Amino acid sequence: MKKKSLFIISFLFSFFSCDSKLNEDNSLKNTFKTEEINKLLESIQLPEGFEIEIYANNISNARSMDISPSGTIFIGNRHGDNVFAIRDEDEDNIAEKKWLITNKLKNMPNGVAFHKGDLYVAEVDKLWVFKNIEDNLENPGDPILIYDDYPKDKHHGWKYIAFGPDGKLYVPVGAPCNICESKNKMYASITRMNPDGSDREIFAYGVRNTVGFTWNPNNDEMWFTDNGRDMLGDNIPPCELNRVTKPGQNFGYPYCHGDDIGDPEFGGKHPCSDFVTPARNLGPHVAPLGLKFYNGNMFPNEYKGDIFIAEHGSWNRSKKIGYRITRVKIKENKAISYEPFIYGWLNNEEQEAWGRPVDILILDDGSMLISDDKADLIYRVSYKG
Questions:
Q1: Angle at 212 between CA 112 and CA 5, to 5 degrees
Q2: Mind listing the pLDDT tens digit for each residue in 148-183?
Q3: Most CB contacts within 10 A, which of 61, 76, 107, 273?
Q4: What confidence tens digit (pLDDT) does each residue in 269-323 have?
Q5: Strand 346-347, strand 352-353: pairing
Q6: Rounded to whole angstroms, how far apart are CA atoms 187 and 190?
Q7: What are the residues facing 330 on neighbouring strands?
Q8: Would you call the peptide bond into 278 cis, given omega within 30 degrees of 0 as the criterion?
């Protein structure tokens, strides 16, 4: 791995004049000064030939992302009540425009999904839609409520959402605890529904807390990350990368973790052989969130078809790990290896992290965007050779 640093254009960090009155009333302070950003980026390690730069600054608690065909990027928020849109209008790889879509959703509007001109936003217990959003960025108005029957538990309640190849909206429901059984089968699941909120059903069971899923462009199978349970020690259980091959599969929670780790409290009720084995065990407590298959043309051909995962980083391990982007190599629809791709947000010696990756997008030019909810940044990763 080779250290790469980029010169960041100083005007970026005064950043974004907000266009609507909504934005004027909710301006955000810069998280870092230009000099601080330049110094911090010097700590980021990338493979030879890759570069990282700031695509957007001042995106408070930048979490889940989605992008429209015209290039508008929508960004959700977990700790605040803001949903943003940004766009690079002059194609200089810096987003000059920012809109505050709403500051009225008070219950963790983490999930965003763009579909046929509309922006869908997920709170803990509700789903909203902003109609014809790109025609109304200056004044989005109030969203339309399409669903309000999800559990209200905030423990693992924030949601990542996305539309699948089948046109349905996929919405996870985390377990309301670290480890527990629930009579309500909706907990620890991934659900799906029609875009209007009708015909909701459970698509996958035994999913403790997924905050990221995507589909293999070659066969439309869903792959998702899952955060493993806590309080079993530093090194168990692993977090997971899972593959759904058909609706209704069960991925083991709360009975089984990883390949074959029976839960000490609930594992005696069902053997691990009853459940779908992970496609790949990931690091313990690394908190894997967003993921994407790489189908662009910018990176070297060896990356084509592999999965990149944003690891948010551990919170309760005696020595922190994660805080990085990892690469899972895919061959014949199987995960054959797992390795770091970008790291440096965590200072291992001091055990302090200045950034935490959350989600990933692959742009039309083949570059990668990464959201960071600690540094309030969106990064762009490119390959120069």
A1: 90
A2: 999 999 999 999 999 999 999 999 999 999 999 999
A3: 76
A4: 999 999 999 999 999 999 999 999 999 999 999 999 999 999 999 998 999 999 9
A5: antiparallel
A6: 9
A7: 335
A8: no
- Domain 19-26+55-380 in this protein, CATH class: mainly beta
Long-range contacts of 254-259 (CB under 8 A, 24+ apart): 254/175, 254/179, 254/180, 254/181, 254/188, 254/206, 254/208, 254/229, 255/206, 257/228, 257/229, 258/228
Q: What is the DSSP string of 165-213?
A: TTSPEEEEE--SSSS---S-TTSSEEEEE-TTS-S-EEEEE--S----E
> Global pTM?
0.93
Apex CA 5: angle with CA 320 and CA 344, to 5°? 5
Two tokens at 321? 């790990």
Domain residue spans of the chain? 19-26+55-380
Q: What are the distances in angstroms from CA 124 to CA 20, 99, 110, 195, 240?
A: 27, 23, 8, 18, 23
Please name the helix (run of DSSP H) or strand (run of DSSP E) that holds residue 74, with its range, or none. Answer: strand 73-77
In whole angstroms, give the CA distance from residue 282 to residue 212: 14
326 contacts 282 by C-beta, under 8 angstroms: yes
